[in-house]
Amino acid sequence: MANFKPFNKYTFFLLDKLITKYNIKSPFLEVGCGTGELSKHLAKNKFYGKAIDSSKKAISIAKINLKDFSSIKVEKRIMSELSGKYNSIFLWDVIEHIKNDKQTLMKAYRILNNNGYLIMHTPSNPNEWSWDDEFYGHYRRYTEKDMRSKLELAGFKVCSIWDTTYPIFWIIRRIYLKIMKKPNLTINKKTRTSKSGLDPSWKSNVTSKKIIMLNPFWQLVYRLQYFFFRNYVGKGFSFLVVAKK
C-alpha cells in the first residue's frame, strides 16, 4: 500500500512529527531509496545526505526526481559497501525485503554517529499477511515485540513505534484485497523486490485521481488517526519506528 498516495503522504506527516520530536538531523542515508520520494521530501525540509538503491532503474528515476536538490547524492550502492558516518538512517519499506535483517540493523548501528537515529517504516502484524506481501517480495511482517528485540540486540534504544494504518487505511486495504484480482506472482522474490517501488500493486479505480485529490478529507483522516490511533500498534498493518544509537 506504500504506493497509495494518500497513505504515503500520511506516513510523511507522521515522520515530520517524529523528526521534530527527536530533533533528527542530517547528514542522512536512505537505503533502498526507490524513486526518491522520501529523499525528496527530506530535501524539501532542508535535509542533506545520500540516497542509495541496488536497482539501476530505480536510481535512474531517483536522479531525475532529485535533480533539483544538489544536497542529495544518489548512488547505485548496497548498504554493506558503505563506510562513513550519518546522523540519521532511513529504511523506508525496506527491512522487510532483506533476508538477514539482523545483519542490516547491526550495519546501520555501526555507521550511525553516537546519538544518531534509525528510522524505519515496515509492515507489521503477521496476521495481516496477504498476496500484496508476496507481490512486493516481503520476507516477513513484524510484531512490536520482535522489532524491539531485534533493535535492542543490534544495540539500539527504541524511542517510538507508531501505527500508520489503523483504522482508515486498514479498512481500505481490506476492501482492496477482496475486490482486486491477485496479480502474477511467478517471478522470483528478488525481481519482485526490485520492482516493488516501481510497479505498484495499487492500480485500479480505487486509487483514481478523484479519490486521491480529496485533500480536505485526507487531512481529516490524518489528524483523526494521529491523535487517536497512532499507538494502536497491534491493530494495523504497518508501523513507523524510531531507534537511537
TrEMBL record:
It holds the Pfam family Methyltransf_23. It comes from Candidatus Woesebacteria bacterium GW2011_GWD1_38_10. This is Methyltransferase type 11. Coiled coil: none annotated. The lineage of its organism: Bacteria, Candidatus Woeseibacteriota. CDD domains: AdoMet_MTases. InterPro entries: SAM-dependent_MTases_sf (IPR029063). SUPFAM superfamilies: S-adenosyl-L-methionine-dependent methyltransferases.
